[in-house]
Amino acid sequence: MTCCDTSFLYSLYGGDAHTPRAITFLRHIKNPVSVSELNRFELANALRLAFFRKLLSVTQRDLFLEQFERDVLRGLLSVQITNLADVLAEAGRISEAHTPAGGHRGFDILHVAAAKNIGATDFLTFDQNQRRLARAVALKVPI
What we know:
143 residues; alpha/beta; 7 helices; 4 strands
């Protein structure tokens, strides 16, 4: 199972330097990419923040959010329900083991913990520090 972080989703929907790679990867994957409700929340917030910073128009913001929800309905993305208490417990273990030496941010740890919680084997991210964290907890990072 393949999961992702919000940097991958933002590239897919919000548009940045990694957008071509994200689109190409999604076109060639056989199974849906799993996302958590944390991803859904953080993507929506990132798009709203981009609007606040005047990087996106309200039309663009709403279109990107609609595209995300359409891809969920089409089965390209699969929203996985996770138990927040279990994710937080896993995040605590990951943080204790890896943050002192790796300097990982809380939400990055939560995304990796959620991926582990749902049984992911692969993790998609364009964030270099999060890539190191995912690999440290035995997730493959194919892009």
